[in-house]
Design goal:
Helix content of chain B: over 70%
Number of helices of chain B: 2
Helix content of chain A: 25-40%
Structural class of chain B: mainly alpha
Order of helices and strands of chain A: HEEHEEEHHEEEHEEEHEEHHHEEHH
Largest sheet of chain A: 6 strands, mixed
Distance between the termini of chain B: 18 Å
Strand order of the largest sheet of chain A: 12-10-13-11-14-15
Radius of gyration of chain B: 13 Å
Low-confidence stretches of chain B: none
Low-confidence stretches of chain A: 9-20, 147-223
Radius of gyration of chain A: 24 Å
Largest interface: A-B, 16 and 15 residues
Distance between the termini of chain A: 33 Å
Number of domains of chain B: 1
Mean pLDDT of chain A: 70
Mean pLDDT of chain B: 88
Structural class of chain A: alpha/beta
Oligomer: heterodimer
Number of domains of chain A: 2
C-alpha cells in the first residue's frame, strides 16, 4: 500500500506540473491575474518557426488566444528590458521547442520573433506580456552530435556538374561546422539537401559570391534538379505564370459568404504559413513550383504587391478573400476536369500542372488535392504540408493515390469533425 | 473461456488499438480521441464476434 501511495504521489507530481520549469514570461489573463506561461506556450508564441515532425514552418500566430484559449485575445507582444533579455528569451524558446518536439537539432536553430518584442520593459494589462529574466529556470536543448561522416563515393558512372546555388548569387559549399569532409560526393550532396530542406532558414549555408563554383561528382541517374514549392498572389493579367517550372492554383468553387468566411480565412492563413513567398525562396523562378492565389486586381493594381509578403500581415487575408478571382479559379477547375481529375467535393481544390504551359491539355499531368473537409488552420496546414511535399517530389510520379500520411490527415479531420458531437452526445 | 471473458479480451484489445491509433492520428480535440477509441473498441468487439461465429460453424 505504501508503495502504491508513493507511485501515485509521483504520478500526481508529474501530472500536475509541479516539476515544470519556469519560462519567465508573465501575462495577465482574462481576469487580470498574472500567470506564467509554460515553455511550450512561449515557444509557440514567440519562436520564429515551428518544428512539426520533419517540417519546419514559419510561425504566424497573431494573438495570444491562438496559443492557448485561456489567454487574452490581444496581439502577441512581449516587453523586454534589453538585448540580454532577448538572448535569454531565445534559450527559453528553444527549451520550449525541445520539450514539445524533442528535436534538439531543429530547436537549436529556432530564433525570437523580433517583431513581437517591445524594448523598454514595464508591464501592461493590455495583452502585453513581460519577461523576467531572474524567474527563468530553463536551459537550452542539448547540442546535437555532428552528422556522421559521408560514405565514400561510388566508383561507377559519375558525371561532373556544378551545384545549383540555393541563394543567388552565392554558391553552396559543405558547411564547415559539420563533419562532412573529404570529396564532394553524392552522399554529401544528399546530406546537404536533407539539411537544407529540413530547416527553412532565411540564410542557408552559403559562401561569398566571389568564390569559384564547386564541382561536385554526381551519379547520372540521380541528377534531377530539386524544385522548391512557393506561393504567389497573382493578378488576372499575369496568368499563366509560364516562367515557373510548374504552377498550381488554390481554386475555390464560389466566393466566400458570411457562413463560410472562417474556412476561407483558415485556408488563407495556412497558405501564408505553409508555403514560402516566391521572392523569399532564393532560387530562380524556373526552379520553383509556385502555388497561386488568384487575385482580381483590375481595380487595385498594387494589391498583389501588398499581399506577396513573407508573413501574413493585418488584413492580408481579408483582402485576399475579398478580391479572390473566381473566374480564374473556375477555369482551372474546368481544365482539371478535362484532364480527367474527378472533383466531387465542395472544394476548394489545390490543382497543379507540370509543366506550367500544359494547363488546358487533356493529357496534362495534374496533381489535385481536395480541401473540402478542412475546417481549421491546423487542418489546412496539414493538407498544404502534404501538397508541398508532393509538388517538391518528382512531377512524373504525381498521383492522387494512397499514402500513410494522407490517410493519417484524413482520419484526423474525421475525428476532429465528428468527435466533438460524440462527446456532446455522451454528455461531456 | 466463457463469452464474458472473450468480450473482455476483445474490449481490452480494442482499447489498446484505440490508444495506439490515437497516438498515431493525434486528433486536435478530446472528442476526436474519444471517437477513435470508441470506434476501435467497437470494431474489435464486432470482429471478435464474427470470428467466433465463423469458428462455431
Amino acid at each position: 500500500m505504501r508503495k502504491f501511495v508513493s507511485v501515485m504521489t509521483c504520478c500526481m507530481t508529474v501530472g500536475t506540473g509541479a516539476l515544470a520549469q519556469d519560462s519567465g514570461v508573465f501575462i495577465a489573463n482574462q481576469y487580470g491575474e498574472e500567470i506564467q506561461l509554460s515553455p511550450e506556450s512561449v515557444y509557440r508564441a514567440l519562436g520564429d518557426r515551428r518544428v512539426m515532425g520533419r517540417d519546419v514552418i514559419g510561425n504566424n500566430a497573431l494573438n495570444w488566444n491562438q496559443i492557448d484559449g485561456a489567454l487574452p485575445g490581444d496581439r502577441i507582444k512581449l516587453s523586454i528590458t534589453g538585448g540580454e533579455d532577448a538572448a535569454v528569451l531565445r534559450d527559453a524558446i528553444r527549451a520550449g521547442c525541445y520539450k514539445e518536439s524533442g528535436d534538439s537539432r531543429a530547436c537549436n536553430k529556432v530564433g525570437v520573433r523580433l517583431d513581437r518584442l517591445i524594448q523598454g520593459g514595464g508591464f501592461s494589462s493590455l495583452g502585453t506580456a513581460r519577461f523576467d529574466r531572474q524567474s527563468m529556470t530553463l536551459s537550452p536543448p542539448p547540442v546535437p552530435a555532428p552528422l556522421p561522416p559521408a560514405a565514400p563515393a561510388p566508383p561507377m558512372g559519375t558525371n561532373v556538374i556544378e551545384t545549383q546555388p540555393i541563394a543567388a548569387p552565392a554558391i553552396i559549399r559543405p558547411a564547415p561546422t559539420n563533419s562532412m569532409s573529404g570529396s564532394n560526393t553524392m552522399a554529401n550532396t544528399k546530406a546537404m539537401e536533407t539539411a537544407t530542406s529540413f530547416i527553412v532558414e532565411p540564410s542557408p549555408v552559403v559562401m561569398p559570391a566571389e568564390t569559384a563554383p564547386v564541382a561536385v561528382e554526381i551519379k547520372a541517374p540521380q541528377a534531377r534538379e530539386r524544385v522548391y514549392a512557393s506561393r504567389l498572389f497573382l493578378g488576372r493579367d499575369s496568368f499563366p505564370p509560364e516562367a515557373f517550372a510548374a504552377y498550381g492554383i488554390l481554386a475555390f468553387q464560389t466566393l466566400s459568404t458570411s457562413d463560410d468566411a472562417a474556412k476561407y480565412l483558415a485556408i488563407c492563413e495556412a497558405f501564408f504559413s505553409a508555403l514560402i513567398n516566391s521572392g523569399d525562396v532564393g532560387v530562380d523562378v524556373s526552379k520553383q513550383m509556385v502555388t497561386v492565389w488568384p487575385i482580381d486586381d483590375r481595380k487595385n493594381a498594387s494589391l498583389t504587391n501588398e499581399l506577396n509578403t513573407t508573413r501574413v500581415e493585418d488584413g492580408s487575408c481579408e483582402k485576399a478573400i475579398n478580391y479572390y478571382d473566381i473566374h480564374v479559379a473556375r477555369d482551372a477547375i474546368d481544365d482539371a476536369k478535362d484532364a480527367g481529375i474527378e472533383m466531387t467535393g465542395r472544394g476548394p481544390f489545390l490543382l497543379a500542372w507540370a509543366p506550367a504551359g500544359s494547363k488546358g491539355d487533356e493529357d496534362a499531368i495534374v496533381l489535385a488535392a481536395d480541401l473540402s473537409d478542412v475546417k481549421t488552420v491546423a487542418d489546412a496546414k496539414d493538407v498544404l504540408r502534404i501538397w508541398r511535399d508532393d509538388i517538391e517530389g518528382d512531377p512524373t510520379l504525381w498521383d492522387s493515390g494512397f499514402s500513410a500520411e494522407k490517410l493519417r490527415v484524413k482520419l484526423r479531420q474525421i475525428a476532429n469533425r465528428y468527435g466533438e458531437g460524440l462527446l456532446k452526445f455522451l454528455g461531456g | 473461456m466463457g463469452n464474458l471473458g472473450k468480450l473482455t479480451v476483445s474490449t481490452a484489445i480494442g482499447l489498446l488499438l484505440g490508444i495506439a491509433a490515437m497516438m498515431w492520428i493525434k486528433p486536435d480535440n478530446a472528442g476526436g480521441s474519444v471517437l477513435i477509441i470508441v470506434v476501435c473498441t467497437a470494431f474489435t468487439i464486432i470482429a471478435g464476434a464474427a470470428i467466433k461465429a465463423f469458428r462455431g460453424r
